[in-house]
Amino acid sequence: MPITSALQGWGYGEARRALGQTPLRYLIWQQERVVGAMQLIRKRLVPGFSTLYAPRGPALQSLELLPLLAPAIRHVAGRGDALLKIEPPVAIEAVGEHAGANVPAAYGPFVRSETEQPEHTIVADVSGSEAELFAGLHSMARRNVRAAQKAGVTAGRDEDFDAFWNIFTATNERASLGAFPRGYYETMLREGNRHGGEAYIVLARHEGRALAGGFFLAMGDTTCYLFGGSVRDERPTADGTPRKDAKAPDAFYWHAMLDAKAHGYRVFDFWGIPRKLDEEKHSFGVFRMKLKFSEQRVWYPAYDLPLSQLAPAIVRLLRWRKTRNNLRKRGSAEDVL
Questions:
Q1: Global model pTM greater than 0.90
Q2: Residue 17 and residue 35: Cα distance in Å, rounded?
Q3: DSSP letter string over 155-222?
Q4: pLDDT in tens, 18-39
Q5: I want to staple 265 with a disulfide (CB 3.0 to 4.6 A). Which of 94, 104, 144, 260 is the partner?
Q6: Rounded Cα gap, residues 72 and 256, in angstroms
């Protein structure tokens, strides 16, 4: 499909299954022709009630088909399914003071709502030459990439899941972020390479130790940097002097972009920047880092379709539960992004 996402792929659905949720997969037909596909995730709320969720989906021939989907979805929904959330995988430019006016308020009966995936992100077109890509980086990124190369940092695809996991968990602890159990990511890495998708890890190493890295899920012409982070190198030097910063995170981003280009992907999705910029938040530092490698900011809005009269109450319940989790994990009612 010309409109698609890695989160509509097999691996993401199986990872959700590892959390106790149920992936449901459908073809979308118009008369005798397949015009789309949709992976729904059924999530149980309380006994007798659940929600349906199409992560960065559905996959479609055209957005004009979206309003026509509502009756078909209502037909396949279960008795306890109270609400459907979709996130059409079409990037909307998020530049300028009035960029929000570009976001549709609705697609027929689908009404704009809160997203589950990050609504705002940065993307980069990596189809140009390596020289063009490098010239498009911020001057600080170019300087740091050269410094990392001079320091002997190496980066590329890596099968050391333990090294990625150590970086990822250390980053989450440092920033007071949450994470799913390890099996969720292992399942996605294993199953993400089936049925047209690709899952892989990129690590940046200095003197053998992995200092920065990320987990990628790809499909079609796009690869998505879903999870990752970096750690400090606190190993002592031979003469006991403090170890210099080798700029491993910059090397990681640059080589991940080159890897995406080498494997035929056109779009590199940096996956998640804050809706509201606040220099006091950890997410602002992540935003500044990603902005050094691309300035193309886009939106992926979400839309809800009520399947029950209880849908408004379900929406309030989900917001309350998300706020409670934020308070428990980070001491703040605000979302991370």
A1: yes
A2: 26
A3: EEE---HHHHHHHHHHHHHHHT-----HHHHHHHHHHTTSTT-EEEEEEEEETTEEEEEEEEEEETTE
A4: 999 999 999 999 999 999 999 9
A5: 260
A6: 40
